[in-house]
Structure formats: C-alpha cells, structure tokens
Design goal:
Length: 362
Amino acid sequence: MAGPIKVLVVDDSALIREFMRATLSAQPDMAVTTANDPYVARDRVLRERPDVITLDIEMPRMDGLTFLQKLMAAYPTPVVMFSSHTRDGAEATIKALGLGAVDFVAKPTQNLRELLPALALEIVEKVRAAAGARVRRTPVSLENLQVPQKVEVDQVVALAKSPPRPGGPQVVLMGASTGGTVALEQVLCRLPADSPPIAVVQHMPEHFTLAFANRLNSLAQIKVAEATDGLLLPPGQCFIAPGGRHMLLERGAGGYVVRVKDGPPVNRHKPSVDVLFRSAVGGAGPNAVAIIMTGMGDDGAKGMKDLHDVGALTIAQNEETCTVYGMPKMAVQLGAADRIVPLERIAPLLMGLWAETQGRRA
C-alpha cells in the first residue's frame, strides 16, 4: 500500500473520537479523519476513500449496523467495530462480523485508565491488520505503548510425554482469530448433524463468545455451545472456548472432555489456540485433526507442530481465502501443516475423514 493507511473513525462520542485520533495519528504509517455520525461518514468515504473504517454501533440518526450494510453494498471497505462490552453489544458485534466487518475492539466498562495502553495497542494492531488483509506487514515501533509480556504455552500446559495410541475416536480442533467468525460459520454450517466432535478457539472476550456460539447453534445442524468445565464432547457437538478462559481437551472414560480453566494469556490471548492444541497431544494425539484458520499473529502454530509431531492430521487455511494470513502462515513456516486447503474445502475434507473413521469402526 503506497502512502499512509487512511483511517476514518466514526463515533458519536467526542471523547472516543479524540482518543482514537490521538492513538492512530501517533503511528507514522497512519493518517486519521473522524466523523460524528454515518451521514458525515458517508460523505468522507466518497471524498477521501479511506483504507480502514472504525465504526461504533450505537449512534444517532443511523446505527452502525445499518451503515455497515449500506457501506458493504456500495463501497466495500475494511471495518473494525468499536463495540460495547455488554451482552447486547456482543450480539450486535456478531451481526456486524456477519455483515462483513473484519474485526472488533471491545470498549472496556471499568478500569479504563489502567486498560488504555492495552486498548490502544489492540486498536493499532487491528487497524493495521485490517488494512493489510492477507498481507503480512512489518510492525511499526510502539514505543509509547506498554506491550504486555508474551507468555508461551509451556507456562500453561506441559507437553505430554506419552500421547495416546492411534485408533481412538476422532476429534477436530479448530483455531481462528481475525476473520474467523465468518470462516468458522462457513465450515460449521456445512457439516451434517452426524459430525465428529469439535472444539473451537476463536479469539474473543467474554460475552462475545456466548453470542457467537448462540448464533452458530441457530444456523448449524450440529449442536454448538459455549464450553463449561467438565462437559463431555460427543459426536455432533461443537464447543466454543469461553472468552477470558482457556479450554483444554482431556480423554475420559466416556470419551473426550473439555476443561475450562483460568491462567495467563498465552501469546496475549485467552482463550489461546496453542493451549487447546497442546492439551490435545495427550488427550487425543494421532486421533486429532487440527485446523488453523484466518487470523493475525502466531497463536496455534507451536501447538499444531506438537500435534503434527505425534501423528495428528494438521490443516492450514490457504492464503487466498484468509482475511488475514498470519496464524496459518506461521504454522506453515514452522512445518506444522500437513495440508494447506481453501476455506470451502475444509468441511468436505472433515466429513471424508469422519466417514473413513466410521467405516473402519463398523
């Protein structure tokens, strides 16, 4: 992209507009303009052709969802939603992602002063990722922001020394981030009710994962729910890791069981894909199918390599169908992916593998 990233901030709050303007303007590769409602934003879109739009949901005269729908029909532009961290805000955000928004940032409801540095960092990262969809950019120095220390998966889940032998029941593990809500919907809604058990980590905060699970459950033939600790994971069931908690897989007497636990963010994420994948080395080993999908960063790559090394089938979404080719790219570079496939081929591939497994057990 030649020149700076042109960002249009659309929010009816003067305080939020100023915070966003100051945060993004501090980056040498960004130029920022603002609009206090969608009608002003429409004129700026036509005149300035922004590269990325940040968009509030609750605004006077026209709400953010209506504006987003009109924008995507007339002038598709990468959009990052700025969402209320409430149940209603979460449901609206899931709708926005379904309408074409690339990602979202949740507004904190408390401890605002303490969370501002991390919030500013998240905004910068997600705007830059939105501008460079499927293009990996060299990060710009964020000297003025306090970057949280990166915690590796080894500090949360130890690598199992004795993985299970082949021949156990198949289980599917999926991890995604930016663009993942739409990608996961496309995969899960193509699966029949008789499908393998599935555990999913999608990078989202609490409340948002519940709204996402409820939406998928209303659309898919399989059962989809937000995970809670100790639930049995049977065929035809998909569990979504709850925001703010890690999800792990164990092998119990009656089959696979999901464990939900607290702990530090891994790769700055909680839930973390690496935590789920690493736990499955001992919980499923060669009986697992691990899929890493669209998203920025490298969460999941190491855990996928661990699964690959014990004989699990590992799959990475290809660059052409990713919103952001970050997580799959890192898994491929690490030698963790057995196959690289387009998004539309993931569901048929899973059902083919499941049919083979059921045929061998018949």
